[in-house]
Specification:
The chain is 0% helix and 38% strand. Strands 6-7-1-2-5-8 form a six-stranded antiparallel sheet, with no helix packed on it. By secondary structure, it is an all-beta fold. It has no helices and eight strands. It is elongated and about 55 Å long.
């Protein structure tokens, strides 16, 4: 399934949570924190200005980004993987 975001929205695949602590203790899935880092899968055309033209976003497919903990809406993709759909304003930074 191909998801094409509209406007200033971005589709992100969240990175997997750590299954072990630094000390090597295995964590159950209920105790794992959701990472606030992910990979951009697709980007919308941008924000529409008052003149009716889109202003492109500063993001591109393949970027690794940081976002807030409660950002976006989570959906299941066809393969059963969770993806996030969020506004570009919810993204805090791009990581090189």
């Amino acid at each position: 399934m191909q998801i094409k975001p509209l406007g200033d929205r971005v589709v992100i695949k969240r990175f997997e949570a750590d299954e072990k602590t630094a000390g090597g203790i295995l964590l159950p899935s209920t105790a794992q924190n959701k990472p606030q880092k992910g990979k951009v899968l697709s980007v919308g055309p941008g924000k529409m200005g008052k003149d009716g033209k889109y202003t492109p976003l500063d993001l591109k497919e393949g970027d690794t980004v940081l976002f807030t903990n409660w950002a976006g809406d989570e959906f299941k993709e066809g393969a059963g993987e969770n993806i996030l759909l969020m506004r570009a304003d919810d993204i805090l930074a791009v990581i090189d």
